[in-house]
Amino acid sequence: MISGVKRDEMLAALDGEPFDVLVIGGGASGLGVAVDAQTRGYRTLLLEKHDFAKGTSSRSTKLVHGGVRYLQQGNVSLVFEALRERGLLCRNAPHLVRDLGFVVPRYKWWEGPFYGVGLKVYDRLAGKLNIARSRVLDRKETIARIPNVETENLLGGVIYHDAQFDDARMAFTLARTAADHGAIVLNYFAVVGLMKENDAVVGVRAVDRETGRELEIRARVVVNATGIFADEVRKMDVPASEATLAPSQGVHLVLDRAFQPSDTALMVPHTDDGRVLFVIPWHGRVLVGTTDTAVEEPAIEPRPLPQEVDFILRNAGRYLERDPREDDVLSYFAGLRPLFRGGGERGGTKSISREHSVIVSDSGLVTLVGGKWTTYRKMAEDTVDDAALEAELPESPCITENLRLHGWMARDDPDRPHEGHMEMYGSDADDVTALVDGRPDLGAEVHPHLPYDRAQIVWAARHEMARTVDDVLSRRTRSLLLDARAAIEAAPDVARLLADELDRDDVWVEEQVAEFREMARGYLPPTSG
């Protein structure tokens, strides 16, 4: 078994017998499938064209939740499934997932019974895996929970509980978990075509983007788990394939902690387009979102639209005493949801299903579409069930309901790190901090306005397959999301640290800094330049 995720060792393992399961895509869907397949005993390979969680899977609202608004829409089955998966994820990854209280403020007398009853149903659906019971708050309690809440005409609020996580860190944890069990997971390895024999998919043609080396890799079944790009892979199989997805853009703004200076989130129940809006404490900042804007084509680096930023600021301002303005934004980011269109479904993206579907083509290509982070495990289970059946793999049950993810530590473990930027490593935290023992310079912060130290950069290169400045500042740490200006300023030092670890030259350092700065400017409001 390969220890950790070290790219050179992973590459060496490509030569040999065909794989049982080959997964295309290294986001939530693909990584979940890789963990499920490998832990069933199937020899599994995952290939990701960019970096793990480069796209949508690192740009979510950072919630593991049942979906209160889906309950409002009457989609009880989706909420029930998501709440069950929320409970399992809290149990299997306590170092990454934590309880978060959400307050819905009340400004009219009837809102108390209305929200109170609905959230009791939410509690009931969660059953034994419920985090905590919802309850009604008076005016004083509501202000204590949400110090910056709009107080004019405020009567009180209702508090309920969901869970919060770090999406990109969860992705790497899944990659480590898959590798711990023997899977091969590779980033910067692009699938450029499907191999076929007798009209059946028998593998892929893929290119190592770092070396240009092209390989033909055989597998008993190929799983397309590329999220918003799933239709592109389906067209490799059948060029005339109809679109199954309707991408929807969600935008989030990141503000200073002063805009919500407590450990409770605010849920705005009424926005201009009928969605809910969240104001959430996260990594010492405040995350506000999200929007729902239909887009024509998927992109790996989507950009917020001015009207989306205006929408969030306007709707958040109705419920906050101190209104956020565009020049308060530390960073903003956009992600594309892979919404499942289904058979000719029409309408706005808010009406299109968040549920997932598994499609098996005539050639045997298995495609997972739709879904969300909270239900990634169930999505993977359904996909591997179908893939194993299609490939006639030996029957083997799914074990992920009770599978502890890499780094697992009990919440009451006295050795568990409690600093936000170290807690995410779980049982690896001591090994990360131990890097400083041999090199005291690694204990320095990467930037005064960011909560990360230089040891975490080195760890990312050695043990988390980080290959670029973007990998480190956007996903191994969340520097770009927390403060885009600070991340841009930290880029030269990070590039030099990576160059030392990856044996790169000064030209590479200059190119990396320039590329990151160009990309990161898209995370700043236009007025920031």
Report on the architecture of this protein.
- This protein folds into three domains: 7-56 and 169-245 and 349-402, 3-Layer(bba) Sandwich (FAD/NAD(P)-binding domain), CATH 3.50.50; 93-162 and 246-337, D-Amino Acid Oxidase, Chain A, domain 2 (2-Layer Sandwich); 420-528, Helicase, Ruva Protein, domain 3 (Orthogonal Bundle), CATH 1.10.8.
- Helices cover 35% and strands 21% of the residues.
- The chain contains 17 helices and 18 strands.
- The chain has helices at 7-12, 28-39, 68-72, 76-92, 111-126, 139-145, 167-180, 230-237, 306-317, 376-391, 420-423, 429-438, 454-463, 469-476, 479-482, 484-502, 506-520; strands at residues 19-24, 44-47, 63-64, 98-106, 135-138, 156-164, 184-186, 189-197, 200-208, 214-224, 248-256, 265-268, 277-282, 285-289, 293-294, 331-337, 356-360, 366-370.
- Strands 3, 4, 5, 6, 11, 12, 13, 14, 15 and 16 form a ten-stranded mixed beta sheet that branches.
- Helix 2 (28-39) packs across helix 10 (376-391).
- The longest helix has 19 residues, at 484-502.
- The radius of gyration is 23 Å and the shape is globular.
- The N and C termini lie far apart (48 Å).
- Residues 343-353 have low confidence and may be disordered.
